[in-house]
Amino acid sequence: MISNQWYAILPSKKVKTDKIVGVKRMNLDLAIFRNSKGEIGCVVDQCTHRGAALSLGKVKDDCIQCPFHGLEFNKIGKCMFIPANGKASTGDISRYNVKHYPVREENGIIYLWYGDEEKITDDLPFFDKEIDDSFVFSELEDHWNSHYSRCIENQLDVVHLPFVHQSTIGRGNKTLVNGPKVVWEDGILTTSANNELDQGQKPKSPEECVIKDTHLSFRFPNIWMNHISENIKVIIYFAPVDDENTVLYIRFYCKLTSLRPINSLIAYIGKFANKTVERQDKRVVITQKPKASSLRSGEKLVPGDGPIIKYRKIREELINSTVK
Fold it and tell me: Are 258 and 145 in a shared domain?
């Protein structure tokens, strides 16, 4: 994992007011809840008293209440009340505090800060310059038995298109990979497919290629966009579960018409197109070994893997920059 980053981990709609959701993210068992004010809290899903799962409890007085002995913790994990000690108790109960993780919400996504709290930034990774409130979207969720780095790399892979997606987005047998051009600028990794039919010609170098209107963008640590057109885009955020599992949240954004209900219908239909393509990818990616990618994985890469190589280099630099 890359430390000191905001990770997109869950859709906001998953956590209802006065409800608790138990999830595993970044190898951590977490209890996420929303109080009566609409505020999100995230704590380790284990009571400090006797080790029970807090996610099985309930929200009471804007706190998460343990289902075992009723201890109450606020949104930052501070123990507020121990019923067995009585309401009149004035003793210090700070030793019962449970570890919490900072969380924020934006664009209907819950982000979790993974790293040192004193290094928290206000930059929640998204594509704000590309997507605004004029868009509507539909969302698809799927679980992959793959490390999140493999899932991300698959969305930067232009070489696989005519083979994995022969019946969908890879039609045309365009197996010759020109470039591709890769740009790393302002914290965004951008590339585009420049594939063509192989008629014996020499592939173009990355320098001879351009970033097309239809292109792919990625923001660390885990959110990707397919810019299909100015009015249609696909976003995926790859929520890391553990070293071998990832949940993909796939959004189809649309503003093709001036009528939001029509755009919503198009986005809904687009969700099923996304599902078809995604399942084609999943079938292959879950078989990759080793589960996690790295610069020294032993793979014999080709020039067309340029975006993947760049992703791995940046990811390694970010990981190393936070190692104490």
Answer: yes
3-state secondary structure the chain: CCCCEEEEEEEHHHCCECCEEEEEECCEEEEEEECCCCCEEEEECCCCCCCCCHHHCEEECCEEECCCCCCEECCCCCEEECHHHCCCCCCCCHHHCCCECCEEEECCEEEEEECCHHHCCCCCCCCCCCCCCCCEEEEEEEEECCCHHHHHHHCCCCCCHHHHCCCCCCCCCCCECCCCCEEEECCEEEECCCCECCCCCCCCCHHHCCCCCCEEEEECCCEEEEECCCCEEEEEEEEEEECCEEEEEEEEEECCCCCHHHHHHHHHHHHHHHHHHHHHHHHHHCCCCCCCCCCCCCCCCCHHHHHHHHHHHHHHHHHHHCCC
Give, rounded to a whole angstrom, the gap between the first and last alpha carbons of the chain. Answer: 14
Domain boundary among 88, 119, 150: 119
Range of the domain at 76: 5-119
| Positions of the chain with pLDDT under 50 | none
Domain count, the chain: 2
Residue bearing tokens 């965004």: 188
Q: What is the pLDDT of residue 297?
A: 85
| End residue of a domain, out of 69, 87, 119 | 119
pLDDT at 266: 98
Predicted pLDDT of residue 95: 97
| Three-state secondary structure string covering 109-140 | EEEEEECCHHHCCCCCCCCCCCCCCCCEEEEE
Give the per-residue pLDDT at 324: 60
Q: Both tokens of residue 59?
A: 């929200």
pTM of the predicted protein model: 0.95
